[in-house]
Amino acid sequence: MNKNLPKQMYALVDGNNFYASCERVFNPALNGKPVVVLSNNDGIIIARSAEAKALGIKMGTPAFEVKNLIEQKKIYAFSSNYALYGDMSQRMMNIFREFTPDVEIYSIDEAFLDFSGFSGMDFKQTGMDMRKRVKKYIGIPVSVGFGPTKTLAKIANRIAKKHLKKTGVALIDTPEKIERALQMTPIDEVWGIGRRYAQFLQKYQVKTAWDFTQLPDSFVKKHLSVVGLRTKEELLGTACIPMELVPPPRKAIRTARTFSKNVIDYRFVEEAVSDFAAKTARKLREQKSVANLLTVFLRTNKFDKTKPYYANSFSIQISPSSNSSIQLVKYAQAALKIIYKEGFEYKKAGVLVSGLSPEGNRQLDLFDNFSYEKHRNLMRILDKLNAENGYEVVKIGSQGQSRAWRLRQEYRSKRFTTRWDELIEVVVES
DNA sequence: TCTGGGGTCCTAGGACCC
DNA sequence: TCTGGGGTCCTAGGACCC
C-alpha cells in the first residue's frame, strides 16, 4: 500500500441510467415509473431505470424475452434515440467543465475530471454541487466518485451509487479508505477486469479487488498481461492511466447493423452494405480523415441453430486513400461480391475502414489528382446539402430506398433537441 | 417473429530480411 | 550431412470498455 498518497485526485462522474434518464427529462410523467431503452432494432435492453432494475430486468436481455413483463408491469419502453442522448451528453459535459478545465469525455454518459492540485478543496462538497447543478440545468441525476487514480475513482463512483445514494458522492482519499473500498468491491466490478478474467481469477480464490492486489506481479503479468498489472498498480493508489483531454483520432471506423429480418436477396444486401459504406465515408469526412483499407463483413443469424451458419469478411486496399462516399461504396460492393454466397439468410453486415490518416496529408497521386478533386468537391456539396436540410436528404443511388433491411424503431421518442423530424429523401445517381 | 453497435489494446506467430 | 540468429512488420485472435 502506498502510504503517501499522491497529490492526484480524479473524479468519475456519470449519469445514472443515462438513456432512461434522458427520456424522463422530456416526459416527467415517467418519474417514479419503470423505464427501459432498447437497442437498435428494438433488439435488447440497453438501459433501465431503478424501478425497471427492481423488476428484475437485466442488461442485455433480448426484448422479446421480457415483452410480457413489460406489458404486465406497465414498463415504459423506448427505442434508442441517440440524437437526443448525444445532445444531452454535450450539455452535461459543459457543466462538468465549469468545475475544472481538465475533463476527459470517457463515454456518452461519463467523464473523468482531474482535480489534481486543487489542494484544500472540499471534494465531497464539490461533488454535491456538481450533482445539484447538473440536475437543475440538465435534469439528469449523476453520481460522483473521487479517487487518487482513475481506477479508484471508478470504484468510488460505484460505491456512491450503491451505498451513498443520498449524497451520490464518494471520496477515497486515505490508504485506509482505499483498503476498505477494495475489500467491498467484487473483482468483476473492477474497471479492466471483464467476465473472462473474473472467472479465471475466481479459480484462485480472488473474489474482491483487495484479493487481486495481493497477487504477485509475475502472476498478474503472465495471465492478464501488462494491462492487468497496470490495474493492480492503480488499485494500490499509483496513477498510471493518464487523462486524455484531447480525444485521439480514431484508428478505425465501423458501421454495422443487424437487419430487422433475414435478407437473402443480393440486391438488398448490396443496398445495405452501400449505405453502410456511405455512412462510414461521412464519418471519415467529419473527422477529416481518409482511409486506406476497407473491410466488408456479413453473417447469418448466429442464434438460429436450425439453419446453416455462414460468416465471412474481405478487405480491400483503398488506393489512393479516400473518404469519398462514391468511391467507398464502389470498394464495398466489390468486397461484398467476393464474400456473398447464394442461399444463406443474412442477418448482419457491416463496413469497417482502417489505416486512417489526416485528409491534408493525403499522398498526392498525380495521375489521379483530377478524380480526387472531383470527389472532394462533390462530397462538399453533399455534406453541405445534408447539413442544411437534415439528415441524409441527399444520398447516393445505390444506398437505396427500398430499405428491406431497415431498422425497426417502434417506440422512438421525438428528437426533441435536434432539427430533423421528418425526412424527405432526395437521391443522386453516382 | 423477435438476441446492438462501436471502439481499444496486447500477444503470439508467421513472413521476411540481413 | 549440415540446416543460425536477431530484428521488424503484419495479422488474427482474444481480452477489455461503454
Properties at a glance:
single chain; 430 residues; alpha+beta; Dna Ligase, domain 1; four-stranded antiparallel β-sheet; 13 helices; DNA-binding
- Amount of helix: 25-40%
**CATH top level of the domain at 253-399?**
Alpha Beta
Low-confidence stretches: 418-430
Number of beta strands:
14
Placed side by side, the strands forming the largest sheet appear as 5-6-1-7-8
CATH architecture level-2 label of the domain at 253-399: 2-Layer Sandwich
CATH superfamily of the domain at 253-399: DNA polymerase, Y-family, little finger domain
- Count of helical stretches: 13
Please tell me how large the radius of gyration is. 24 Å
Q: How much beta, percentage-wise?
A: 15-25%
CATH topology of the domain at 253-399: Dna Ligase, domain 1
Spatial shape:
globular
Overall structural class, as computed from helix and strand content, comes to alpha+beta
